[in-house]
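A protein record in our archive is deliberately plain, so that people and models can read it alike. The tokens are whole numbers drawn from a learned vocabulary of local backbone shapes. For reference, a complete record is included directly beneath this paragraph.
>
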Amino acid sequence: MTTFALVGAGPGLGLATARRFGTAGHAVALISRDARKLEELTAELARDGIRARGFAADVLDPASLTTALREASETLGPIEILQYSPVPRADFMKPVLDTSADDLEAPLSFSVKGPVTAVHAVLPGMRALGRGTLLFVNGGSAVRPHPDRAGTSIAFAAESAYARMLHDALAPENIHAAQLIIPGAIRPDAEHSSPEVLARRLYDLHTERDGFRHYAEPLPD
């Protein structure tokens, strides 16, 4: 059994994606800062017969994130799929003219240093398996910067560049990097952006391994 590791576990998209990969036969490693939330999510997955465990870590703390992913691999089995999709903080979204250099430190740590740390933690195991998938989930500002959300727009663009380079560099090793852009809000009643629909889409990105950037729905004009 290999493991699906979710960085940014939560009750919406995170839970739906964990359930989709879990029902496909993968163990599930849930990573979040909130230990109580992790207990609730693992209990819900266990009721579905999915082997899951939570590992508390903060993506702004590289050492804790590395430790969590290492423990997940040792406890559940080698990590074949990594999904990086923590929700950005509201204070990352200041208007561009109000955003200082200091204001960019946390968003860049969140969306660049966090993914780099996570990838370096799981890549040796994927190479040993001879396969792997790296999934990056971003909002529309990753491809269309928004002047009222400067920190996230800048950081998501940088994360996109990193993920694209991974896609090109790792393809010869049978490790697929892909990005899913979700332009709007994730809502249970959304045709293309409900948690369950997005979870199926992410699973398809893992299995079909077709191209780098994908959109949950078209960007609004």
